[in-house]
Amino acid sequence: MPIVAIHQPHYLPYCGYLDKWDQADLFILLDDAQFARGGWQNRNYIKTAQGRHLLTAPVRHHGFQTLRETKIDYTRRWDRAHIRTLEQAYARAPYRHLLSTITAEVYCRRWDRLSELAIGCTLSFGRQLRIETPTVLASSLNVPGNSSQRLADLCRAVGADAYLAGDGCRVYLDEQPFDKAGIEVLWQGFTHPRWRQLHDQHGFQSHLSALDLLLNTGPDSLAVLRGPRLFAGAAQ
Asked: What InterPro entries is this protein classified in (predicted)?
């Protein structure tokens, strides 16, 4: 298994997340990672007529707990509100019909845990973009530990030759465990693509949920996502 990427599952993941998945030969979903309040595991931005809008799936959070231990809070019908917001924001999107598939796969059931919602959403996006890289849950590999050592151990457990790390990890990733395991560390080098968006008065908005890419570019979404990477490779 040459190149492995590892990432926590996200609700409405953004393009950089999907680019990392697409570059790997195997994508490990870190479903047993610790829940980070204020992070991106249960929220992301979309673009509306009013500009950037944050959609958050509320959870019941008490101290230190993993994504698998974090329950979704349905005391308020946030799911219905998210559907309405998405339908209004993308009513004029060229591929707005794809939203019905996302709605059916993400919102037309009640998820008990955040890990389940985030995994379901992540896999739904992957299917829509036709990302072919297989996935595996970290919890199924029975690899204990934490931090960089666990990432290296997960890579070793699936026979990885290389670990694809996100650019934001440069400040804290310890490469020593990978060196000891004979696993090369590669860096994603993500460049955000551009596409024609709705609501022109707000200009192009980057780092939104990849749903914006999907509903505006449809079957071309994966090619658009790969565009900056292929251009960089051709320039070299």
From this structure: WbqC
Residue 163 has a CB neighbour count (10 Å cut-off) of 28
179-195 pLDDT, tens per residue? 999 999 999 999 999 99
Taking a C-beta distance cutoff of 8 angstroms, is the pair 192, 20 a contact?
no
Contacts of 150-156 with CB under 8 Å at 24 or more apart are: 151/6, 151/177, 151/178, 152/177, 152/178, 152/180, 152/181, 152/183, 153/177, 153/181, 154/4, 154/6, 154/28, 155/4, 155/6, 155/181, 155/183, 156/181, 156/183
Spatial distance between the Cα atoms of 208 and 46, rounded to a whole number of angstroms: 5
Packing angle, helices 15-23 and 221-235, rounded to 10 = 70
* 11, 42 contact by CB (below 8 A): yes
Q: Which tokens in the block code for residue 82?
A: 């998210």
Nearest residue to 10 (alpha-carbon basis) of 51, 48, 56, 52: 56
> Among residues 55, 42, 219, which one has the least CA distance to residue 127?
219
Does 234 score more than 50 pLDDT? Answer: no
Q: Two tokens at 9? A: 């599952």
Write phi, then psi, for 45 (nearest 5 degrees): -95, 150
Give all strands (DSSP E) within the chain, no chain letters: 3-7, 26-29, 43-48, 51-56, 59-60, 71-72, 135-137, 162-165, 184-187
